[in-house]
Amino acid sequence: MGQRNVSRTVSRGFTLVELLVVIAIIGVLISLLLPAVQSAREAARRMQCQNNLKQIALACHNYHSVYDRFPPSAMVNLRVSSTGNNGSWGVHGRILPYLEQGHLYERIDLSTAWDFQTAIDGLKVPAYACPSDPGSDAIRDAGGGRAKLYPTTYGFNFGTWFVFNPQTSQGGDGMFFPNAFLGFRDCLDGASNTLLAAEVKAWTPYRRNGGPGTVSEPMTVASLQTIVPSAPEFKDTGHTEWPDGRVHHSGFTTTMAPNTLVAHSVAGNILDVDYNSWQEGRNGNTGSSTYAAVTSRSYHEGLVHASRIDGSVTSITESVDLALWRSMGTRKGREVVPSDR
C-alpha cells in the first residue's frame, strides 16, 4: 500500500506576551472612554437637575395663578407665645398638587404639624432630589414615631441675611419668609432678575444659637465666623426635612456666594456648615429674630443651578461676584443685574 501525504493544520494560540499586550490595549481604551462616559452621565444628571428646578418654578407659577401670590415659607401663629417646633409646612408641601403629586396633597393636612402625618412617611418626591447629590437617597428617621423623610436638594430664596422678626411680622428681602403673601407685583427688581430657588446640599451641618452678635450682614466667611464664633447647638441635619418651612431645611440665603466653604471644626474635623440664629416661629411672638447664612451648594463642579421668578433656569458659577449674587436674591433692591447672569 502506498503512503498518503496527510497535511495537518496546527492551531497556534496566543503567547503570554501577546495576551498581555491585548489586555494593555483594552485597559488604555477603557481609560480613554471612562472620562467620556462619566462626563456624559454628569451631563445627564445636570439636565435632570435643571428640569427639577424648572418643574418647581412652574409649580410656584401655578400656585400663584390660583392664589394670586406665592406660598409663604411657613405660617406662624403670632397670637400665641408658644408654638410647636415643627408646626408649619413649607413651600415644598404647598406646591405638591402642581408637581403631579395631587394624590399625596389630598392625604395631608397643611393646617396641622407634619411630623406625624403618615402620608409622607418614607416618601420621596422625585422633583426634590438632585441626582448628583449622594445625600438625597439617605432617609432621615428622627425617631419618636415621626415620619421618616428624604432630604431636599432645592431651597427657596429667603434673601440676604435677615429672615424674620416674629414680634413685628417683618420679613427679609427675599421672595419667601413666614406669613408672606408676596406675588409678581412685589418683585420690583423684575422677575428675570430675582431668584426663586437654587440648589442646596442634603444633610448640611448647621449651627444655631439665640442670635448673632450683630445684625450687620457679614461680608466674608471670616466676618461670619466672628459674628457667630460658636453655637450651643450643632446639628448635621440641614435640608433633611422637605415639608419643614424653616430656612435651614427649605431655603437658602445669599449671604455667601455659591459653594463658599464655611469651615467649622467639630471633633477635629473641618465641616462646611450653615448658620440659622433662631428657628422661625419656634416660640410664637416671643421668639428672637432669625438671621441665616444658608449657602447654595451643589455637587456639580464649579456651579449651582438656580431658577428665577420668571421660571427660567440658569447655571451660576461659584466665582460670581458676591454683590451680584446678593442683588439676585433681593426682590426690591433696585440693583441692575446683567442679562447673561
What would you say this structure looks like, in words?
This protein has 341 residues and is of the alpha+beta class. It is built from six helices and 13 strands. The protein has helices at 16-67, 91-94, 102-105, 221-227, 247-250, 322-329; strands at residues 154-157, 162-165, 170-171, 195-199, 204-208, 233-238, 251-252, 263-266, 269-272, 274-276, 290-293, 303-308, 313-317. A hairpin with a 4-residue loop joins β12 and β13. The mean pLDDT is 87.
Give keywords.
alpha+beta, five-stranded mixed sheet, 341 residues, single chain
Topology:
Blueprint: H1 16-67, H2 91-94, H3 102-105, E1 154-157, E2 162-165, E3 170-171, E4 195-199, E5 204-208, H4 221-227, E6 233-238, H5 247-250, E7 251-252, E8 263-266, E9 269-272, E10 274-276, E11 290-293, E12 303-308, E13 313-317, H6 322-329
Parallel strand pairs: 1-7, 5-10
Antiparallel strand pairs: 1-4, 2-3, 2-11, 4-12, 5-6, 8-9, 10-11, 12-13
